[in-house]
Fold this protein.
Amino acid sequence: MKLGLHYWKYSTPEDPALIAPTLARTARIAEQAGFARFTVMDHYFQMETPHSVATEPMLEGYTTLGYVAAVTERMQLNLMVTGVMYRYPGLLAKIVTTLDVLSGGRAQLGLGASWYEREQRALGVPVVPVSERFERLEETLQICLQMWSDDDGPYQGRHYQLAETICVPRPLRNPRPPIIIGGSGEKKTLRLVAQYADACNLFGTSIEEVSHKLDVLRAHCADVGRDYAAIEKTVMWSRRPALSELDTFLTEAEQLAKLGVSELDLVPDAGQNPVEFAEQIAEHLLPRLAQIG
């Protein structure tokens, strides 16, 4: 079982001048400890939750990953996940390619349907119906795959039309950066995983829920003729704090491993210093987690 660290808060510590050094130190500690992946959100305002407000600090995701790439050497890097409405697909393919080249082949394309309408309306991003977001998501997947192929010709879709799909330099990752689709929607999201993705990222609400979603994904794979085993299963696990209930967390991790889940992405608690979170996970959890799988 691998671990990913999902960095979602930039407000601890409070001084904005400490955002960059805190981010860098957290990433270095995570890599040295053996985290497999480092992810950040694709938001421009902080999410509104019981523990956070929109006016808290938030950094643009791909710029942040470029900074993390410069201070690390091995961890995989991606947004969890790119909002499909935030970048034209051809430019998104170039952005991910740039991250891949500059990181030495460590970029992944995390992609999902945009949802945070407050920030979209505030910043002038078009707000379209959910059905159209998923149409655009599928076209974006097709465009990225074409740009990372030998076909540099045109693309004609309902929402996007590209006269050329040149992408030079090519990504260092062979044959291309892996595609991970985030979300648990049974009718559309998991169907797109089956058809296009190398990995899924599910929300870890319970063992039973993850098991059910994987059964749905397996059925979609059968429908489109995809090898279910070829898709990596990852889970954003926020069901319980990993450190405060360590034995329970490890039991659940073992159950998830039996379902075929190969990676758990962990989130620091609201208000928790991310450096301390990475240090504690490295000391108390990773050595025991390495025995699971």
Remarks:
- The CA atoms of residues 233 and 261 lie 5 Å apart.
- DSSP finds nine helices and eleven strands in the chain.
- The first strand starts at residue 2 and ends at 7.
